[in-house]
Write a structure and sequence with these properties.
The structure is a single chain. This protein has eleven helices and ten strands. With 275 residues, it is α/β, with parallel strands linked by helices. α1 crosses α9. 51% of the residues are buried. The mean pLDDT is 95.
């Protein structure tokens, strides 16, 4: 079943009699010495879309860098990762993580100890997944761009681009997951249902944009949405944030951090559509 920009569901409910625990805890395992920005973007975007907590698990230099940018995130050194995995409602992993030997060990350890918790894997997590034997979680979302998709299927990028829908379905079936294959019309599929997104524009073609999407999907999952619906809505709102940002800044001038600031506006637009 194909769906073109069909959003037949509501945003997660917000109850007045609620607290931060009501809206879930994201454990974001992200960042490395040379890519602390990815950790910031993927953490803050999860909060901006409504989750109650975001715990950033990373190395000390990354935690210090992100702490200088925001006080809204809880910081977890790698040595405490196993403990935090036991209480997380959602785990996101891979944004800026690198593919070093240590990063691979962290990735493998995390997936081994996740249990039934939903997981979103992006960026370097996908690159590690393509090369390493790991235990796959039962509830899994992968968010590759075409080159990462090619690595996951061990084909060329050109092969992926020839049939994006088929490629996305093959990844979903191979890894038993929901896939968001990121292009100008991102394909979301669980191997059977297919959603083709048409929000967004070239403003999203900027470093860090994918990190924001990862955080948005994780934040929606933390609020209780199922894998396919959260991925579909995250992709749509991410694209809409890019459109709104480009109206202020042009498609040339939008940065990933600008997308985060426009997530509430995108949510408001979606709320207005449902009235």
């Amino acid at each position: 079943m194909r769906e073109f920009d069909k959003l037949d569901f509501e945003l997660p409910k917000r109850e007045q009699n609620s607290h931060k625990g009501t809206y879930g805890k994201v454990l974001n395992i992200a960042g490395s010495r040379y890519m602390p920005g990815a950790a910031y973007l993927s953490s803050v975007s999860a909060l901006k879309i409504g989750c109650g907590y975001c715990f950033l698990c990373s190395e000390e230099s990354v935690l210090s860098a992100v702490a200088n940018q925001t006080q809204n995130v809880v910081f977890v050194p790698f040595k405490d990762m196993k403990k935090q995995l036991k209480t997380a409602d959602v785990v996101s992993i891979g944004c800026g993580l690198s593919t070093s030997f240590r990063a691979k060990q962290i990735f493998k350890t995390a997936l081994k100890n996740i249990g039934d918790t939903p997981v979103v894997i992006d960026a370097d997590g996908l690159n590690i997944l393509a090369k390493e034997k790991v235990k796959l979680p039962k509830k899994l979302v992968l968010t590759p761009h075409p080159t990462e998709a090619a690595r996951l299927l061990n084909v060329t990028t050109e092969d992926i681009l020839q049939d994006l829908e088929l490629s996305a379905k093959e990844i979903a079936k191979k890894y038993n997951c929901v896939v968001a294959l990121k292009t100008h019309n991102t394909v979301v599929t669980d191997g059977e249902k297919v959603y083709i997104n048409n929000s967004g524009n070239s403003a999203l073609a900027k470093a860090g944009s994918g990190d924001v999407l990862t955080g948005m999907i994780a934040g929606l999952l933390a609020q209780g949405m199922d894998l396919f619906q959260a991925t579909k809505l995250g992709v749509y709102l991410h694209g809409l944030s890019g459109e709104l940002a480009s109206k202020r800044l042009t498609e040339y001038g939008v940065m990933a951090s600008d997308l985060i600031s426009l997530i509430p506006n995108a949510l408001y637009c979606r709320l207005r559509q449902s009235i």
